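Reader question, answered in our methods column.
A reader sent in the components of a multi-part assembly and asked whether the whole thing could be modeled at once rather than chain by chain. We filled in our standard form and ran it. Here is what they sent:
COMPLEX SIZE: two components
ENTRIES:
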Amino acid sequence: MQKKKNKLLHSLKHLSWGNRINDGWTEESPRPRDWEKMYRARWQHDKVVRSTHGVNCTGSCSWKIHVKDGIITWETQQTDYPSTGDNFPDYEPRGCPRGASFSWYTYSPTRVKYPYVRGQLYELWKEELESAGNPVQAWENIVSDPGKREKYVKARGKGGFVRGSWKDVCDMIAASSIYTIKKYGPDRVVGFSPIPAMSMVSYAGGARFLSLIGGTILSFYDWYADLPPASPQVWGDQTDVPESGDWYNTKYFIIWGTNIPQTRTPDAHFMVESRYNGTKVVGVSPDYAEYDKFADIWLPAKAGTDGALAMAMTHVILKEFYVDQETPYFMEYAKQYTDLPFLIILDPKEGNYRTDRFLRASDIVSGEEHGEWKTVVWDETSGKMVIPNGTQGHRWDQGSKWNLDLTAADGSTINPKMSFLADSDEVAMVEFPYFAENTGGKVQRGVPAKRIKDVSGNELVISTVFDLMLAHTGVNRGLQGDYPTDYNDSNKPYTPAWQESITSVKKEHVIQVAREFADNAARTKGKSMIAMGGGTNHWFHSDQIYRAILNLVLLTGSQGVNGGGWAHYVGQEKVRPLEGFSQIAFANDWVKSPRFMNGTSFFYFVTEQFRYEYDQDEVQADWGGKYANMHPADFNALSARLGWLPSFPQLSQNSLDVLREARERNPDDQAVVQDIARQLADGSLDWAVENPNDPRNFPRVFFNWRSNLLGDSGKGHEYFVKHLIGGSDSVLSDFEQSWQPETINLAEKPPEGKVDLFVSIDFRMTSSGLFSDIILPAATWYEKHDISSTDLHPFVHPFNAAINPPWETKSDWDTFREITKVFSDMAKEHLPAQEDLVMSPLAHDTINEIAQPFGKVKDWRKGEVEPIPGKTMPNFNFVKRDYPNVYEMWTTIGPNIQSGYGTKGVKIPGERVYNDLLNRLGTCKREGIGKGQPDLYSDKQAINAILLMSGATNGRRAVEGWKSMEAKTGKTLRHISEGREEEDYTLDALTIQPRQAISTPVWSGLENDNRRYSPFTVNKEFNIPWHTLTGRQSFYLDHEVMLDYGEGLPLYRPPINKGPFMKGETEVENKEKSLTVRFLSPHQKWGIHTMFTDTDNMVQLFRGWQFIWLNEKDGASIGIKDNDWIEVYNRNGVVVARAVLTYRLPQGIAFMHHAQDRTMGVPGNTITKKRGGTHNSVTRIYPKATHMIGGYSQLSYGFNYYGPTGSQRDTMTVIRPLKEVDWLEN
Amino acid sequence: MRIKAQVAMVMHLDKCIGCHTCSVTCKNVWTNRPGMEYVWFNNVETRPGPGYPKEWENTDRYKGGWTLRNGRLHLRAGGPVAKLANIFYNPNMADLSDFYEPWTYDFEHLHKAPSKEHLPVARPKSTITGKYMDKPEWGPNWDDDLAGGSEVVPMDPNVRKLQEHIAMEYEKTFMMYLPRICEHCLNPSCVASCPTGALYKRDEDGIVLVDQEACRGWRFCQNGCPYHKVYYNWNTHKAEKCNFCYPRTEAGLPTICSETCVGRIRYIGVVLYDADRVKKAASVEDPKDLYEAQLSVFLDPQDPEVIERALEAGINRSWIDSAQQSPIYKMAMKWKIALPLHPEYRTLPMVWYVPPLSPIMNHLTNEHDLSADGYIPAVDQMRIPMEYLASILSADDTSVIRRVLLKMAAMRVHMRDKSVGGMDEMKKSKLLQEAGTTVEELEDMARLLAVSKYNERFVIPTGRREMDEDLHYKRGACSIEELAPPEGMVTYPFERGDTP
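And here is the structure of the entire assembly that came back:
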């Protein structure tokens, strides 16, 4: 029986002697221990809810959210993942310190609890609303009066928020959108929200609204420079990589510029543990990075020189495993799965040859369907040229030969010939470019070649990609020319000795690692893997760095093999349930053709960075230059008009008016198309991209949600502040001294403060919020329902509400539903239904990708071709905009689903899906055009719709997808997923336990039998072609612009070393010591981008914000000590931070980790006397022309798939001590 | 023989990715409140580096742990007389600057700043004084990843001791992570340091606790612990420390730091030891013998005699079963790859560490060195100086470290040979011999270290609550006993939980 405690007796028990043991040293005490219930009570909690974090970390971890006393108190990781098998490490636990800190936000002082509006604007709004009588007129009165507009635009970023009501802010948003659509066109309403995979439904809410009204949706993956352009170039695929569990399958793992422990925290253990299973690990990084701790050897390559290192390894592997001794596994792989045996035409030039395009079927036979798109090999057996199956031409010729079977038309087996060395007609002297700081140039190297006659009887000199690769990389086979003598020849590319002076990695280490990597692959049939990421990808020449590294996995037959191939991780791009997501997010169920715009180009123009362009990097070799010397803005304009890149806003004229007027003049669609094409050709319609300074082309309403564009991802932050926002900036460059484009119409002075209304939706206050006009209070990830997926594991994780949204917060889904409702209601009076002209680029994975044969640039403006929409210029699409019914459409699933849907060429029949949706989601009973449709009112319905419609989460859809691939490929594929046909994931099911994704043709990996996902295993095991010109993995890219850049074959290009200022610009006066260094912004340890950085845990666990890492000798050279204040600046802006000194970094570089927002602990700078900037204050956008080409097979545009990347590592900055700290807060 | 059971932990440093998830999840549950801002029951240190608090290993300064004088154990900080003399001022105690002054940011200002000239900013503010600070000067992990470089690294007492072995140069950089919690020692000096007797080691599982009702805040435990793992709550004026998450382990769950460890470096299990051997083991003369002496305290849970005596001592069958499956017993006692942290403190710590491997030095270029044992480099060429590891884990005995590293390397060589082949058989058998191991042992190791399943990492029996009083009553009333104490009422048919 429990007795009431006698406190006195209780305390006296301490004095009583216990039993002494251990030679009298220890006492066994009988003391009471009732107090222990204190800590037990702390641990006790009410419930545990499964949720995750919607942040672009690629983690997508499942968490237990603990609720105690009705309060969210802490989170710990779920450990209930389905097992990976008996002898394999499991996924538990997944999570990192950042995620574990999230619960802090719920009740923190940075929480946005109510709608906020910029005070000056709210005041104007209330006044005008009263006088104008209707909200659209009120908005017009404000923004059309320069004085009124300036009043609030100039106040941006300077405090002064007031609380608004949801009703008022929704009215302002709707009125500004409607006014903008009427006045300028719907594409001036713009939304930026990144990475749907991190919270698909929250993304979809806004994207669905923008898709329905015709707004512009900006891409992010390319803009973030997380897209590796080499992936579409080599594979015709955005990014497809192994899940982290597959790291355990590798036997040789090179970690190359991706900080696995720090940025792949929940996955790192697979790498660590694989070592105990006998895997060797090599680390390549300029600093002694966290992953080097796990390496057996560290290759300290200088920042940005990875391409040189990889080319030298390529040299070693080609020499030792292809030439000195042929490796049967590698040769077989190369013949079937790469373009190495394909034939290339050599183009005579000034006594030498240069490599030109692939030889095509149309060159050697006539009458072959799409013969311009069928590439050719030499069959060793028959001694003839043959057209193997599986090329781009086969994909679109309506036949069933789009496969990688090496079967000739007569049924015989093709044995593609790799080299003409033994039976060449001549040794052609071929010229190759090479690039290196100061020492670039050309080399002439002998290549065995054949002479053939083409279909018109002309003589052609041809070679194989393989022979060209050997010559290009300098592997000699007794041929004449500028070949290096051996590995120690340091003068000729690409030997181990040659790279040593560039990378500083010892040549012996290069040889050893290359040899082991290949030997391991030969022994294991491809279990050699390379992990890569931001460190190798965030460069202007990322594509070349990556292609050089990918040489290693392709040449060793490691791609498409579990435990082998590339493993690229930057950005959480993988939306596993892609088919369903695309329908819901982009409202394809109601209307087609959303306005997808590539973010890099958009921001390049909108923030006027194109007017502050550096002069072109000296071409380090005397090579091409026709396109390589064009101003990026001029090239971008060319790209837009030839239908390569999208371009929104599209025309200076309102797209609604253009179409209405053309309709009035013309009887039918065809005539309308021709009319508009003619107007474009004769210049009566203006391309917005050529008139970015025209106020008609400014983005007027901007939605920023799930994003911190201004404090984080905006490269050239100060240009954003100045030109987009109109706040006070620290731009130090001078556009008058900068390189200006030739074909772009410019205002005398770059315009500032372009946007009329900047809206952010967030649950915390960031720089984006501080610069916004309206901030809407968002529910956190523990307060709503959503789903998330990633590359790194095969599960789709749900978000669930541990508590309902507190204060006046709402989920993003509910927020956009409310905005849509107010918009629709207002449109009934102000914006009738009408028709819209959407000009979309020639898209990858559609018939448009064979629009422009041979990759030759033909400009209709110069009369080189006719202006034909969908062929030589963008597609024109006519889209009905039913503005008064946008809400009804937004909240229901539209009828288009019934006619089927799909993505990446995979087609899913729609009738059954539609009926299943009616059952699962229920039928809409609201009056209007949505009545009777599947109901999409709530986030839970959206989740279940996405899951039901996608192969990865619904077995029936997976089987249907595979079936749709059978006709074209002539292969039986449905069996791949038939065993899982009954699996049907719902939100509730995923909440009970994570489930492994189902194999679907939307992705290239296989996941049956509890197998770890590895990309391109479908291609390799079922002979399904890659989405490339040859259908194989590409070493050679023959587009005219690629060749002009000298980038037909993978090679090394040094990083850009421009700046810190341009000639003629006023430089900052600098009396004291200063230092010029390369500025690098790798991902950080104490946040995911700026997320989590404000939490007490992340603040305390390092040094608070902001800080920059430097080598301590560099620090000493300018007289600073650890933790001293510094200023970092160049022509783009100024950063203020504290220095972290160390010897772990080499001299000459600075790490300012991405991303540290300027909201915490940043004083003023002494140069402009403004607040110090963010890590992106000293960066800017450098678009690369080769990413803008299109209409050509895998080099065709896809949203977040191909396009210029916003690289940021090619930045030089000055660092100096900051002597006085001024908080600018008095 | 007096058998007792102890829950113990192994941290496999070679697996540690230095992510600090353990610190955060622990802090959120246990030390996320006023008075405890600066307290991290669990912290992770980059080494070489001074640690948290700064230089905690500097026993000259803090005088923690035990020392041997004339063959007898004494608290280094002095006995009761010295304590009485210093009771109002303890010169050896770490102060806030040795830990750090915690801070946050003035976030509300971002929302509430009036319309003004500049972009608002949230300035750092001390959470102790509430005052603005220009910049923080130190933190619990200020030197993460060698931040501070040669300004900070020499504060590491091990570095100072081994100057000639430690190069603070880019090319020779090495680092490792050292996560730390309370050691829950077999011979805890914190317990002995407490003038009030508020600290105690639980009999049933060996967890060391500070009784929050008994603590009077004298704080001798704080520096009496050589690991500096007892903290002072300035709000309650009492000491608090890692409680090994007993509310979880009693339920058979791993500690929070362990379950949330994404590097999966932590293992928890039960070991049986002879409490009557503790004093002797802690009193061996040569510090280098302390490691082996500590091992001699533990009992083989498969030994029938041990089992019989354990049952007699009231240790139930499931605890014995757990001890037999214990990953700790395997790693620390059987395979001897996990080592005690600073055995020279003579506290017989019960959190064990497997020392880390590291990349070979970059000056090596000849082919033989680069491919020492097939693909796996030789342990003698690794970056982390063995002397450094020995200074932390084996009282400077490098032969102990070398043997562990050899075993780890041998495991990798063997597992590679098994899955890929191509290793030199002669070299391999020589390596196995030198490492003193067998193929069977290496495969067992690989299973626990690499495959590392949850149920094999954590083998924790539920708490023996059947020993408590009034379980029948508690079932209905626990946590609300204060609401309705059944004074004088005879509502329940049984007096005690174990009496029919």
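What stands out: Chain A has a mean pLDDT of 96. Residues 306-324 of chain A form the longest helix (19 residues).
Send us your own complexes using the same form.
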